[in-house]
Structures are given as C-alpha cells and as structure tokens.
C-alpha cells in the first residue's frame, strides 16, 4: 500500500476522524489483557493476593472493600496517567492531522489523547474514562473530575489499601462512587460528547474526510463497524485502517480504503515522514 496515496487524501481532506482502540494502547505500553512484566511490576501484589490475571480483570473485580478498590484504581491511574508524557506515536498522529479539523472516537479510557494535547472537546470516549467518577448508585448524572484525588490516593496507599478517610462518597446520596467506565452500575454515556461528535459529522457531511482507524480489530462493533458504515454513506471519505495481524475492509468500501498490516508506531512514523 502506497503512503503517497494516503498523503494525497490527507492533503485533500477538510477533516480527519480518528478511531482508536486497544492496539493504540498496546503500542504505548499499556496492555489491558496481558499478564506480562509490566503487569507484574505494577500489580504483582494484587495478582498474588486476589488472583488478578490482567489489568482488565482488576477493572471489573468485585473488591472486598472500597479501600482496596480505590488502591487498585489510584495505582493504575498514577502509573499510566500521572507519569504519562506524549509518546512518539501520539506526536506523529498530531503532525499527521496538522491544522485540519478533527475528532477522536476511542474506547481507550486512559485519557492519553487529552494528555497528548488533543482538544478534549474533540474527543468522545465511548466507554468512559479513568479520570472521572460517578455515583455508583446512579442517583444523578453528573460526572466528576477525579485525577488529582486519585493521585493523592496513590501516594497515600499502604499495603494495597487507601486510607478510609480518602474514600470518595456521592455528594447527593452519600453512597459509594465508581470510576466513570462502562460496566459500572450507574454508568451513563457522555451525552455532550456524543452531540459534539454528531455535530462534527454533520459539519463535514459530503466533504473530503479521512477516517483514520488505529489498532481496532476486525470484529470490533463499537467503533469499527460504525466507521465503516459512515464511509459507505460518504462517497468523499477515505478509510485508512492500521492494525497488526488482521485487517478487514468490506467490499462496498474497497475503492475508498487503504489497509496497513503492521506496527502502528512504525506505520504512523512513515506516514508522517511522507507528508
């Protein structure tokens, strides 16, 4: 597949729509599904105490206490968000987008797009994110920023427990709080971000747009399927999918599509150099 062809489409584009999932996180060193060295280094004690198999297992665990639950989450946030600096793959993506209008749709909850300088008003995190809290009972819809609070918890953690006086409580009902991620009992989607996404699509309807899909598996229904349907409805859109090992481009959008099977960081770096 020719990088020059994709660069030509980018140069003609009025906007770039980025779709991103686990493959991007893995490229940055965050593997939610792996029992690897990184998991052992950060959560080895949790692994042995609770039988955790990976980060994702911990995210959905039924914790014995709020003190232990928030020890897990605060440590996760501190390690992968508090210590985060924009990686080369994020820097390359920023340069590829350039000064074009853009929007990001992602199932990644670690907020690395925002932390890399992407405008939070142009990001829709379809499964929520780690840096916000909500009432676990769902007594109201407000979502609360929690990054600073989680960082303080991480620093105060002792032997896998957060001090009881630091445990967050709902300001309305006094009940427990949860991280604002899909799967939480009181989870509700970010309606404002959904509307901004719809507005973006309406603004660029019928215009030249590049849909840049990063690290999304072929069976993904949450982001990939809607993006492919969008391209099928937009004759002036181009679909660029990058994934390691598996690519899927339906026949109906073959003529609008470019597929790259390989490492995300290497392909984005080469694409940036080809601009």
Question: Describe it for me?
Answer:
By secondary structure, this protein is α/β, with parallel strands linked by helices. The protein folds into two domains: 151 residues, TPP-binding domain (Rossmann fold, 3-Layer(aba) Sandwich); 97 residues. 40% of the residues lie in helices and 17% in strands. A six-stranded parallel sheet has the order 3-2-1-7-8-9, sandwiched between helices. A three-stranded antiparallel sheet has the order 5-4-6, covered by helices on one side. Strand 2, helix 7 and strand 3 form a beta-alpha-beta unit. The chain is globular, with a radius of gyration of 20 Å. The two termini are 15 Å apart. The relative contact order is 0.19.
What's the CATH class of the largest domain, please? Alpha Beta
The count of helical stretches stands at 11
Alpha-carbon Rg, integer = 20 Å
Distance N to C terminus: 15 Å
Give a count of the beta strands, DSSP E runs of length 2 or more.
Answer: 9
Beta-strand content = 15-25%
Which strand order do you get reading across the main beta sheet?
Answer: 3-2-1-7-8-9
- Weakly predicted, low-confidence segments: none
Mean pLDDT: 96
Provide the structure class: alpha/beta
Structural shape: globular
Classified in CATH, the superfamily of the largest domain is TPP-binding domain
* Number of spatially distinct domains: 2
Q: Looking at the chains present, what oligomeric state does this protein adopt? A: single chain
Helix coverage percent of residues?
Answer: 25-40%
Major beta sheet summary: 6 strands, parallel
The helix-strand sequence is: HEHHHHHEHEEEHEHEHEEH
What's the CATH topology name of the largest domain?
Rossmann fold
């Amino acid at each position: 597949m020719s990088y020059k062809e994709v660069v030509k489409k980018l140069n003609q584009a009025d906007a770039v729509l980025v779709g991103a999932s686990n493959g991007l996180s893995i490229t940055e060193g965050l593997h939610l599904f792996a029992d690897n060295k990184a998991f052992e280094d950060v959560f080895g004690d949790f692994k042995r105490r609770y039988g955790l198999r990976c980060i994702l297992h911990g995210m959905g665990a039924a914790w014995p206490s709020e003190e232990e639950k928030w020890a897990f989450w605060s440590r996760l946030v501190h390690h992968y968000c508090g210590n985060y600096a924009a990686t080369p793959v994020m820097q390359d993506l920023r340069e590829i987008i350039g000064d074009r209008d853009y929007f990001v749709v992602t199932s990644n909850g670690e907020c690395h797009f925002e932390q890399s300088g992407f405008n939070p008003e142009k990001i829709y995190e379809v499964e929520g994110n780690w840096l916000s809290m909500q009432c676990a009972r769902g007594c109201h819809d407000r979502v609360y920023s929690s990054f600073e609070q989680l960082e303080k918890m991480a620093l105060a953690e002792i032997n896998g427990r957060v001090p009881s006086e630091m445990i967050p409580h709902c300001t309305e009902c006094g009940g427990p709080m949860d991280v604002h991620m899909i799967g939480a009992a009181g989870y509700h989607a970010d309606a404002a971000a959904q509307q901004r996404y719809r507005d973006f699509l309406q603004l660029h309807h019928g215009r030249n747009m590049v849909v840049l899909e990063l690290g999304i598996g072929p069976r993904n229904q949450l982001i990939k399927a809607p993006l492919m349907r969008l391209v099928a409805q937009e004759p002036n859109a181009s679909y660029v999918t990058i994934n390691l090992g598996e690519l899927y481009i339906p026949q109906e959008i073959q003529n609008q599509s470019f597929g790259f099977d390989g490492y995300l960081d290497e392909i984005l770096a080469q694409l940036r150099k080809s601009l």
